[in-house]
Amino acid sequence: MAVFGWTSSPGFFAVFGKAVRHYLRTGQSMVLGHMEPFWSFHWVDDIVLVEVDVDDRLQKAEKRLRDGVKLVFGSDGWHEGKFTTWSRVFPAVGVDWNIPDENITVPQRKIDKLRSVLAETLGKAFLSRKHLDSVIGVLRHVISFTPITKPFIQRLTAVQNRCRSLASAGAPMTEFLRKDLQWWQTLVFQTEFAGMPMNLFDHTKAFDDIWLVTVARNTICITSMKLQERLLLKQRSQARDGNDLAYAVSCVTDMWGPSLSTEGTWCHVFIHDERWITELIDKMNCKSPEGQQALRLCALSQARHRLHFTTH
To answer: InterPro entries from the entry (predicted)?
Structure first.
């Protein structure tokens, strides 16, 4: 069972949802032999059962869900019209699921809304808290299946949380924030949201390639173990500001991305080196504007070639 919810859902929804899920899992509807839950998101707006169609398992699972809702929410929380029948092709949590073809599609109306909200946001000099909530809310479908969006959504939510903690009306549109929002806009326009393989949700820990990064004697060297290729770049400065490194990582992502790209899934690239280097890649954040722009281009290239960078 997966429990879904979106931005600013009341916290007690999650408590109720977890209680329903706990009750459901203690019964016979749980898929036996699977220690890890199936996409077990800890949010609540929709409760989606994923079950194998063997014998009477579907009927048992459906009964336990209804029992769980009654037990946790009481008779006032019961509404038969909120339940749907079992299906292998269905809409849920804002996207269309096709289990036989193993793909999902974000409806075009949601993509149009996302593009509209981003365009409207970029035209503002000040972002209210309500508008920040709206922007982060419409980006939820993108961050679900694109790993590189993590540091970018974290920066947006940091602005959102800062406004809440200071009880401020909103935040000014800084140049850094504007460029990040332009990055989101470009990502949305370059990404195909129809017929996305479900494998994109499978972030396996196995590595498809390992990149070794060394910085020594004013030279940056990045080596791909799989491709047996190497890039050497002369540093313009001895300072560890990340500017030259950001440019180097962006270059190799563009160069090696087409060769590493795998149809229908992510290519997992492990990058190994010193702490300051891996932090720059994890956070996609550089002190210099030039280096930051290189990282934004690198992130777009990762999404385009479906490369998933990890450092630990």
So the answer is: Hepadnavirus_pol/RT (IPR052055)
